[in-house]
Amino acid sequence: MKSKAAILYNLNSERPYTESKPLKIVEIELDSPGFNEVVVKIKAAGLCHSDLSVIDGNRPRQLPMAMGHEASGVIIELGKGVKNLKIGDHVVFAFLPSCGNCQFCQTGRAGLCESGAEANVNGTLIGGHKRIHKGDEYYYHHLGVSGFAEYAVASVNSLVKIDSDIPFEIAALFGCAVLTGVGAVVNTAKLKLGQSILIVGLGGVGLAAVLGAKAAGASKIIAADLNTQKREVAKSLGAHYVINSSKSNALNELIELTGGGVDVSVEFAGAIPALEFAFQATKRGGTTVTAALPHPEARLELSPVILVGQEKSLKGSYLGSCVPSRDIPAYIELYKSGRLSVKKLITHKISLNQINEGFERLALGEAIRQIIIFD
Questions:
Q1: How confident is the model over 133-150, as a mean pLDDT?
Q2: What's the CA gap between 15 and 19, in Å, rounded?
Q3: Is the distance from CB of 222 to CB of 198 less than 8 angstroms?
């Protein structure tokens, strides 16, 4: 099967991306789906900072790679062994496949799936195969999805079936922005009703966390970002207070506002100063969570005396500590009931041919979630 796809051949392209065009729209070929694999016609895909971090070299991947990890679509072909999905089913991709058999999957920690993590590092589907090529040259898969394309071959372990009445552009958000943002708040940080929370970094994932904190019943939601426009968006989504965390008195302002710091802080900015701010803003006995992915060489200096003497916790969150097959349908139900207004995260709808313009817009901080719409 032939398909147009956005392929990344080189890292660290010069800005602006509107001129360097790091993503090339290429007509590629897809192999037939193998065992427990399907072909998905992509209907919508979101542009995420995690994609941008690959493009700008902060998260190096094997190249050439068919990019995109937040997408939704409809199944059009089944491989052998597929049991619980059928042609015509609407699906959301999860960017870490879950094998269901390892010690982590069996204890409800699908985000730590060993086979899924290995496949993502190797740029293959969870079965170890690459299904994307042009002639004799095979391309790597991006997190088992490669959703910036008209069609994708995917493992059933990367897919969650959803109701067919959910618009595809909304459904795509649940594969990363909502899964990661809401999950970090309710699964990793375990925010309790009436607790205060600080959310640092207000991209699509951070703003989804604002929605999650509101749905979970936080008493004070404080949102921090350097971008004025994003702080205003956070207020419109339910943040009670907003802070420019780069200001010299920002930490003192927050501590005074909360009477000693927040119960929970979550950081999505992918910058060490942002994580430091989140940790310092967390009160004694509180929990700081980071779900961001800075450059692998970035390091955080932390005094164990503070961890012990103040009984603070610092936790990582990947995939929102979610079980996609459990949490994506649950979060969609919250959306349907009006408690997760995820539609407000979408600022632009674009075509596949406009993808480099979209990533330049994202790099400039001029967009929240841009959705590629496929006809």
A1: 97
A2: 7
A3: yes
Beta pairing, strands 159-162 & 196-200: unpaired
16: preceding bond cis by omega (within 30 degrees): yes
* Complete DSSP assignment for 172-206: HHTTTHHHHHHHIIIIIS-PPTT-EEEEE--SHHH
User: How many other C-beta atoms can be found within 10 angstroms of the C-beta atom of residue 163?
Assistant: 11
Under 8 Å between Cβ of 197 and 191: yes
Q: So what's the pLDDT on residue 54? A: 96
Torsion angle (degrees, nearest 10) of CA 119, 355, 223, 240: -120
Please tell me the predicted confidence (pLDDT) of residue 177.
98
- The pairing of beta strand 241-243 with beta strand 132-134: unpaired
Q: What's the pLDDT score for residue 8?
A: 98
Cα–Cα distance, 268 to 213 (Å, whole number): 14
Distance, in Å, from the CA atom of 94 to the CA atom of 90, rounded to the nearest integer, reads 13
Domains, the chain: 2-175+341-373 (3.90.180.10), 178-318 (3.40.50.720)
Identify whether the C-beta of residue 70 lies closer than 8 Å to the C-beta of residue 169. no
CB of 327 within 8 A of CB of 179? yes
The per-residue DSSP string of 28-82 comes to: EEEPPP-TTEEEEEEEEEEE-HHHHHHHTTSS---SSEE----EEEEEEEE-TT-
DSSP H or E segment with residue 95: none
Tokens at residue 122, please?
A: 């190797």
Q: How many residues does the chain have?
A: 375
Residue 87 CA: distances (Å) to CA of 120, 147, 208, 305:
26, 18, 31, 57
